[in-house]
User: Fold this.
Amino acid sequence: MTDAGFFSLWLSRAFGGPELNFTEFGRVIEELSRADGSVGWCAMVANTCSRLSGYIAQDAGHEIFRNGNSILAGSINPTGKAVAVPGGFRVSGRWSYGSLIQHSHWTVGNSVVHDGETPRRDGDGALDIRFMIFPTASAEIIDVWHVAGLRGTGSNDFQVRDLYVPEQHALSAFAARPLHPGTLYATPIITVFAASIACVSIGIARAAIDAFVALAAAKTPMGSAVRLRDKSMAQVAVGRAEALLRSGRAFLYDAVEEIWAEAAAGRLPTLHQRAIARLAAAKAAETSAEAVDLLFNAAGGTALFESTPLERCFRDVHATTQHIGTQAGNFELAGRVLLGLDPGTPRF
Assistant:
């Protein structure tokens, strides 16, 4: 996958990447997730990390990204502590959800900058939070990923203790200004990240529809004289699943393409546009899970077996809806903005 460029779709052209737009990127992630949810998830994470290439200086970028031959993993949750020292930071912390970390070359550990023991704040009182990029070999990987869904992502915890990270490897987490041109880097990081997660959900749901159609053509349910595909309940289930999947997908791409067009025109996407995109990401993940649930139930006892793709689709799609970027809390965040309130979080 590295050789084929699947982990560097959002790498800056300055470092040899293709710098795809969101629609192109989303379609790739959907297809990878259709083949295997964990594969799609790992590609999504690695690419959101490669997007940091748009905010990094040339020397550091060439060192880290190596023209698309590096894999980056990491966490955006700021559970690390970075103490400022001459030339950089001494970083300590433990992070969760390090998807793909066993295969990565570099790792991102989001951290709160400290001056001594005091957290650093700007003039508005906001914390100085930065993505600390360090070699994965410097981190201890902690085996905790024993879960229901997306098992293949290997999303283990990781930690470092008093690790030196040079200044040029530390990027402002949520307020970085791009150092490279391109519409991708002018779009809101967190908004686009949430939308990327939903692409994995969509791909998994598509795989579930594929699996159900194949099963329905072959299976004659117990006590039935006809195949599953000839039963009205199966026909309704697959019809509703297709409608759910396509409606959620259309909403997602419509919302993100509006943000993309705004950024391409040199304008900052509005809070309302970002709220709609977050709403679309949550809804696309939700409708994907609903589609899989319909088919899982319609398949009967066959869907319980690990030999049936529906079993893994069921587990994997529900894992995607648990992420903070797509979970139900996003409906509240978006609703606050639609009612004229602030979203209630700086990471929006």
